[in-house]
Amino acid sequence: MSKSKYFKLACQFAALSLALPLATAYAADTTGITADTIKIGVPGAFTGFNAPFGAVEHGISAYYHSINAKGGIHGRKLEPIEIDTACNEAQGISAFKKLIFDDKVFFINGIGCSGVGLAVKPLVLTNKTPFLVAQAVNPDISSPVTPYVFHTVPTSVDAGNTQVDFAMSAPEPHRIAVISFNDEWGKSYHDPEVAYLEKKYNTKPVVDLTMARGATTAVPQLLKIKEANATFIIANLYAVETAIMLREMHDLGINIPVIGGFATNIVDLLARVQSLDIMRPYCGLDAMIAPIGSPALEPWNKIFQATYPKESITTYTYLGMGGAVAAVKAMEAAGPELTREKFIAELEKLRDFDTGILAGKITFTPEDHQGVKQSAVACYDDAGNAVFYASWQKPLAAK
């Protein structure tokens, strides 16, 4: 080969080599998309101690199937792939690896346990997989902001603020007791609550207690609450431990109101304690537009039952549906040439988006991926009816 021809080929090869990285850098990511389908990972706690949380992910899948019944999105059917995390960090990592590497999903929509959400975050970021958090409330899952992680329900910061405001709207004296799990999930509620209580109301808890997840009694904590003459309890516990605490409050004659977070719902708790008298002091946060059984939720019941006709409906059933509605909106807006980049860009354009089921509207920006700030407070009235409140004894307007 002559030197001139060799030099010409070398220049062409060099030019091609320079072009390749640019092409790779700007290549659109269509992982999980075919001409006919869009794969969506739906990880949740379907077994184990927190199996009731799995209703969240079943609600998500049901909504995606309802979109298929209407023709899908730009001719593509949605393919939700459910996988069990058992609310366990190690199992959650394995589940996400399967969704990302084996199933090659377009995005992931689920998770009801903050520990799992935090554990899988590095995997999500490394592989640039869009992740819509459906129930887990730890704000560190979606903060600091990255392009890939979005909270579609209130975080524990916004939820905790609602708990504090509700407790402080009760009649004086405001002697607030706080009881929280001694893990990262408990701290994600507790620390912002205590800071907010001091900043907004210039006060501190009269007693600030911890409880181990899986504890079989709350008597030591309740005796300290009674000794401190607390007038209100903010409880950052899961449903099982909350039920134990409520039964023991009743046995000890401690009759002061309690406000819980998103890890409980009043329908589930009533089924656990099996007594309206035991439940009477308790109210819990609810992200929905109306109580379970309300006419406003009937269309969503039909969506769920079309996919899961034999499964009972709980308040967990609805919690992930709002995020799924937002995901569908973004995919539709991205158009037929769907990519992960376009999907993320459309999510970040959502402003005051009314999902039709969440109490709060969704607003995402490039600077804030914690899209829902508002919650309702659900309590039982004396007749045993679920009522949503804006503040102490002030019901929300009927839906």
Task: Give a quick rundown of the structure.
The protein is of the alpha/beta class and 399 residues long. The chain has helices at 3-25, 54-69, 89-102, 114-127, 156-168, 184-201, 219-227, 239-252, 266-273, 276-279, 298-307, 316-319, 321-334, 340-347, and strands spanning 37-44, 77-84, 107-110, 131-133, 149-151, 176-181, 207-211, 232-236, 258-260, 282-286, 376-380, 386-391, 394-395.
Defining traits:
42% helix; Rossmann fold; globular; 8-stranded mixed beta sheet; alpha/beta
Structural description of this entry:
By secondary structure, the protein is an alpha/beta fold. The protein has two domains: 37-154 and 295-368, Rossmann fold (3-Layer(aba) Sandwich), CATH 3.40.50; 157-286 and 377-395, Response regulator (Rossmann fold), CATH 3.40.50.2300. Helix content is 42%, strand content 16%. The chain has 14 helices and 13 strands. The chain has helices at residues 3-25, 54-69, 89-102, 114-127, 156-168, 184-201, 219-227, 239-252, 266-273, 276-279, 298-307, 316-319, 321-334, 340-347, and strands spanning 37-44, 77-84, 107-110, 131-133, 149-151, 176-181, 207-211, 232-236, 258-260, 282-286, 376-380, 386-391, 394-395. The strands form two sheets. The protein has an eight-stranded mixed β-sheet with strand order 7-6-8-9-10-11-12-13, with helices on both faces. Helix 4 (114-127) links the parallel strand 3 and strand 4 (131-133). The protein is globular and about 65 Å long. Residues 1-26 have low confidence and may be disordered.
